[in-house]
Amino acid sequence: MESLSDTIWDVVICGTGLQQSLLALALSRSNKNILHIDPNQYYGGSEAALSLAEADAWAAARPEASAARPTAATDGAVRLGPLSAYSVALAPQFLHARSPLVELLVSSRAFRQLEFLAVSSFFVLESSPSSSSGPSNPSLARIPATREDVFASTAMPARAKRQLMKFLKFVLAFDGTDTGDDKGDGDSAWQSHASEPLGAFLQSSFGLDDRLRDNVLALTLSLDGAGVTVAQGLARLHRHITSMGLFGPGFAAVYPKWGGCGEIVQVACRAAAVGGGIYMLGSGIKSLLELELTRDMTVKTKLLVRGSEAIGGPSSEDVPASTSKQSGQHLSRLIAVIGAPLPFLFAPTVEGAPVAGGAVIALPAGRPVLADGAASEHPVFVMAHSSDTGECPVGQSVLHFTTIRTEGSKAVLESALTTLLAAFAKEASGDAEGRANEESPSIPVLYSLYYEQPRGDEARVPDAEPEPEPEPETETPLGVFRFPPLPVDLMVQDAPLEVVREAWRRVMGPEEDDAAYMAFVDREGSDADDMEYD
């Protein structure tokens, strides 16, 4: 331990969230002296993947969080397995095939240590008339996202198919710029509507009805629903559609096995450790005078890179949402481990497609799809993970519910879980139409965890040459690079990756060629026959 204090570190990285860990990966072959610390006793920060025992302890430290394990109702019912057999991701995010993060994982060779599963099917929970005078009876409807899907649909009238095909063609031509060429179909006019809500744009420019708008908005994966801007929504849709089929037929996105971004964090930190980086968990920053650590140790560094970890106190992960210094929106999240495999969600969508490990279900805002015919103020998104992800035992699944926090959002998520389990039970029994006089077998909830997270800001990127931030605790200014809060979304955003590159430039200096960023060759002894992505 004494040598840590004697070393002058080129950089101390505080926190093992996705951004900090990617920076560690980028520096893993730089021959720099790197000390990587984290106030928590686990890797990953807000993106961590925890066992159920760790999740229980994590929830117990947060007033707004709660974990529950319902008792099995009958003998022979599916029961919760050993707590270590589960790995629940606190912020599950998937990667589109054309995501810059995928490119970085490939160029850095980190992909060799990762296993990806397809995320192939996207569904909308639709309300359908009940046979009684009671509330609607929601059912799952798969979203058509390709020309083949649209033409194969039997639930869509010909006019709606033409409208949707026109819009899909428009999205494929979208490149984020206005060419000024008037093609007569609105292609050149989107920039005049760039900051307007996408939902209204879909109706005014393409005549899409409520059902088609729900489908399109669901594919944006935006928690803002119809309020997502035209510019943001079109960019998200273009990324999704152009990613389709890149890694194989029938899917546009992938999910890292064993915990999503939490597994990417583990791989990145292992690479940095192999390259000589030193790791200390349970060590935060006490002050910025030669970095006094919470383990009563002082280290010297040329640059500190940190996230939103508190100085002299707990990490940002330990600060309740109600008292966090981070302002802005928060998200309500619910994780449910259920006793059913849900094969209909993960089945291949086209010939030659793999069995998926993940699926996405959207509950549109304002639609009466919750229990008792209620509607949510904001959309609810559900990421379903099969046992193939390694996050639960065979025969079970993990559901991740997310919506914008409101006064009643916890009840909304609980209602969404109840409604979705009923829809799953009908689907599993071959009764997708939901006959009112027959009761489908119920699906048990084996474990649940409710919690809240700051949403972050997907648009915030530092200046090209950020200045060091002097901390009020120090008399001598110390070079500090601070990552903005990582946006909590269903897919990894591009902007935070640019922040990592800026931090790498700060560490390496202006003489380093930008082309060297994350551009590694295989280490000696690695398997050169591993699959390559083109």
UniProtKB/TrEMBL annotation:
<dbReference type="InterPro" id="IPR017230">
    <property type="entry name" value="Mrs6"/>
</dbReference>
<dbReference type="GO" id="GO:0005968">
    <property type="term" value="C:Rab-protein geranylgeranyltransferase complex"/>
</dbReference>
<dbReference type="GO" id="GO:0007264">
    <property type="term" value="P:small GTPase-mediated signal transduction"/>
</dbReference>
<dbReference type="InterPro" id="IPR036188">
    <property type="entry name" value="FAD/NAD-bd_sf"/>
</dbReference>
<dbReference type="GO" id="GO:0016192">
    <property type="term" value="P:vesicle-mediated transport"/>
</dbReference>
<dbReference type="GO" id="GO:0005829">
    <property type="term" value="C:cytosol"/>
</dbReference>
<dbReference type="GO" id="GO:0005092">
    <property type="term" value="F:GDP-dissociation inhibitor activity"/>
</dbReference>
<dbReference type="Pfam" id="PF00996">
    <property type="entry name" value="GDI"/>
</dbReference>
<keyword id="KW-0808">Transferase</keyword>
<comment type="similarity">
    <text>Belongs to the Rab GDI family.</text>
</comment>
<feature type="compositionally biased region" description="Acidic residues">
    <location>
        <begin position="464"/>
        <end position="474"/>
    </location>
</feature>
<feature type="region of interest" description="Disordered">
    <location>
        <begin position="457"/>
        <end position="480"/>
    </location>
</feature>
<dbReference type="GO" id="GO:0005634">
    <property type="term" value="C:nucleus"/>
</dbReference>
<dbReference type="GO" id="GO:0016740">
    <property type="term" value="F:transferase activity"/>
</dbReference>
<dbReference type="InterPro" id="IPR018203">
    <property type="entry name" value="GDP_dissociation_inhibitor"/>
</dbReference>
<protein>
    <recommendedName>
        <fullName>Rab proteins geranylgeranyltransferase</fullName>
    </recommendedName>
</protein>
